[in-house]
Amino acid sequence: MRHAEARHTPRKRFGQNFLVDAHYLQRIVAAIAPQPGDSLVEIGPGLGALTRPLLQRVDRLSVIEIDRDLAARLAAEFPAERLVLHNADALKFDFATLGSDLRIVGNLPYNISSPLLFHLAQFEACLRDLHVMLQREVVDRMCAQPATPDYGRLSVMLQARFRIERLFVVPPGAFRPAPKVDSAVARMIPLREARPRLADEALFARIVAAAFSQRRKTLRNTLRQWFDAPGLEALGVDPGARGETLSVADYARLANAAEATDGHEN
Question: Which pTM does this prediction carry?
């Protein structure tokens, strides 16, 4: 492993920080608890530190790796019938092509973490669960509750689709090169039937984005495209409140009301 690291210079443009600590690798595998027949997909396998123990547990593993050099190295190390390699950008990858009941795992690049999470959320119907490692600050935002400093657009948009749990923190020293911040591993499970019913998902996303676009402004101002003050009050929402005080269910109610009155732009 150290030999492989010495031959590969981590590339900043791909956000490469490789997890090398055996203790945390074991904890991640234990959290996933992979079974032989699982449809497991690893994003950013890198030098294969997590790939190897996963392949000891499953019959076949699909991996998405953007770095051509690392993809070639993985292809040379593992037989194609066991490691299905996609040399591709995870931000643009169609995960639905890999089938259903997918189990996603990955040490996600910090520089594209939010866009990648939003992209993965689009495939919730074909996902069983996700175990992802991200900057701790991002995981805290993912799990945050209303009326807390970390609660924001990312919290609402992901919690509308997933039950999210922070499992454990991973210190900088577990990586090569070491990042400047703590990381954390999160488990995301699609809500399925428990998911809020949304008449128009795009409208929901626009309302949530507007509510958090200027955090110091009240909902009377940020949502005026769709509601006046009496309209908000009729829906049980204080016009003088700010976006971070509303729950996911509140946002769903607002979006469905806006769709029903056709108050949004066509």
Answer: 0.92
